[in-house]
Write a structure and sequence with these properties.
Elements (H helix, E strand, L loop, with lengths): L1 E3 L2 E3 L2 E3 L5 E7 L4 E8 L2 H18 L4 H17 L1 H12 L3 H6 L4 H15 L3 E4 L2 E7 L2 E5 L5 H15 L2 E5 L6 H12 L7 E3 L4 H10 L5 E5 L2 H12 L4 E5 L5 E4 L5 H13 L11 E5 L3 H13 L18 H16 L3 E4 L17 E6 L4 H4 L6 E7 L2 H9 L6 E5 L2 H8 L6 E4 L17 E2 L4 H7 L1 E7 L10
Parallel strand pairs: 1-5, 8-9, 8-11, 9-10, 11-12, 13-14, 13-18, 14-17, 16-17, 18-19
Antiparallel strand pairs: 2-3, 4-5, 6-7, 7-21, 12-20, 15-16
Helix pairs in contact: 2-5, 2-6, 3-7, 5-6, 6-16, 8-9, 10-11
Length: about 475
């Protein structure tokens, strides 16, 4: 049983100053997997003070010093992959193969990408008779979710560390253990005391305290759009920078030029990955109206391949993360039926033979219109809505008719797919099942957030720009 009842502050593991604890539930067994402490305001103040004290020194380290630190950190991550995998499987419920091949290695990937960017990044440039400097913004608060816990930690910590910021991390209280292990990784890699700090707790109390804290210069949040609005409101009182990666309802346009069989199989698999608990999941599939019946048949067959089961058995589909999430998904499935969508596969209730655990039947709806609740709201579960379109223009209109804009997907002849992609209002568009490139920017339009993560574009989120106007100077101190 994992106990996340200490905080990592100023390079030490410290007991909380007051506060309470919460149970962490294994979603596959519905049994407690451990406990997590809830930080008090005093704990938040201690962590922020440690980061503030460390900033003066760490912000002036050289590029070479930070490159060496990132190298050590990547190596330290590699050593702990088995521990990280166990923690994520027990708390998130992702199948072991998803965790070992994806979840547990993502922090190391982000660290290596940030290291490569740092090696070539220019923190100053001449502009006429002035110098433009890019300097670390200061102390950053990171509030991260439970669905891909290590990915979101790595995608924030790596660029912030690379440019010379210090930080306080508050991971999700639902899946905290990978963050605790990550703090151990940071310590073992020799990250200077106070540069990285960890406090546990919930969003309404600990997350809100960090967002509003006057000594925090920037807050980066990943989670629901509703919670993101709360973070922005709390941060507004101190006019700090706010970076957000929020919800999504990503369209997947299957063009008439696409291989429908492959597009349906790949599209269903992409939704079912991580039990549908991915902000960029392609949960609105758009198919030509005349091929809807064929699409139903192919989608049903694809869904039946995603059999839920024990995450440690390498089942294709694990449980969703919590009882609360399970009930939300069930309500939305029932709403889809009530609003007249055609249930092609799955439906309400637990999968056959699974009486324990927060398992959801892999569910496909067809004949969905874009006004239905299941086409508008982020379900965050293994549920796909298939919509019909009449023309390419119609498909683009439907795809863009959403308050979200995190990701989009297009299947079809490459030139045609590129032309459609250029007209979609989303931060990242994936063509024909292309693999993710962690050097490319990731983030959303509209209510899917602001700012970008991954690669060189992530650096800008953690930098201030200063113009020194006067005689041009060719050289600038390292850093």
């Amino acid at each position: 049983m994992a106990n996340n009842t200490q905080f990592y502050i100023g390079g030490e593991w410290l007991e909380p100053e007051g506060g309470s604890t919460l149970e962490v539930i294994n979603p596959a067994t519905e049994v407690a997997a451990g406990r997590v402490a809830v930080a008090s305001i005093a704990d938040v103040d201690r962590a922020v003070a440690a980061a503030r004290n460390a900033f003066e020194t760490f912000s002036r380290t050289t590029v070479e010093e930070r490159l060496a630190l990132l190298d050590r950190l990547a190596a330290s991550c590699d050593k702990r992959v088995p521990d990280l995998a166990r923690a994520i499987t027990n708390e998130v419920g992702a199948p072991r193969w998803v965790v070992e091949e994806m979840q547990a290695v993502l922090a190391g990937i982000h660290i290596r990408v940030a290291r490569d960017v740092l090696a070539r990044y220019r923190f100053f440039e001449p502009m006429g008779a002035a110098r433009i400097l890019k300097e670390p913004i200061g102390v950053c608060a990171f509030i991260t979710p439970w669905n891909w816990p290590l990915n979101q930690i790595g995608s924030k910590v790596a660029p912030a560390l690379a440019v010379g910021c210090t930080m306080v991390l508050k991971p999700s209280e639902i899946a905290p253990s990978s963050a605790t292990i990550f703090a151990e990784i940071m310590h073992d890699a020799g990250v200077p005391a106070g540069v990285f700090n960890l406090v546990h707790g919930d969003g309404p109390h600990v997350g809100a305290a960090l967002s509003a804290h006057p000594a925090i210069d920037m807050v980066s949040f990943t989670g629901s759009t509703r919670a993101g609005i709360d973070v922005a409101r709390a941060a507004a009182t101190t006019v700090k920078r706010v970076h957000q990666e929020l919800g999504g309802k990503s369209p997947n346009i299957v063009l008439r030029s696409a291989d429908l069989s492959r597009a349906m199989s790949d599209g269903v698999a992409a939704v079912m990955l991580n039990s549908g608990q991915s902000c960029n999941a392609p949960t609105r599939m758009l198919v030509p109206r005349e091929r809807m019946e064929e699409a139903k048949r192919l989608a049903k067959a694809a869904a039946e391949e995603h059999i839920p089961g024990d995450p440690n058995s390498n089942a294709k589909l694990g449980p969703v993360v919590s009882e609360r999430q399970w009930h939300k998904i069930q309500l939305l499935i029932e709403t889809g039926i009530a609003e007249g969508a055609t249930l092609v596969a799955g439906g309400p209730g637990r999968p056959k033979g699974l009486r324990k655990g927060y398992y959801v039947r892999p569910t496909i709806f067809a004949d969905v219109t874009n006004e239905m609740t299941i086409a508008r709201e982020e379900i965050f579960g293994p549920v796909l809505a298939i919509l019909a379109y009449d023309s390419k223009e119609d498909a683009i209109r439907i795809a863009n008719d959403t308050p979200y804009g995190l990701a989009a997907y297009v299947q079809g002849e490459h030139g045609e797919a590129q032309a459609v992609a250029a007209r979609l209002r989303a931060g990242q568009v994936v063509l024909n099942g292309a693999m993710f490139d962690f050097n490319t920017p990731f983030g959303g339009y509209k209510q899917s957030g602001n700012g970008r993560e991954w690669g060189e574009h992530a650096f800008a989120e953690f930098l201030e720009v200063k113009a020194i106007v006067g005689n041009a100077i060719d050289e600038h101190p390292a850093g």
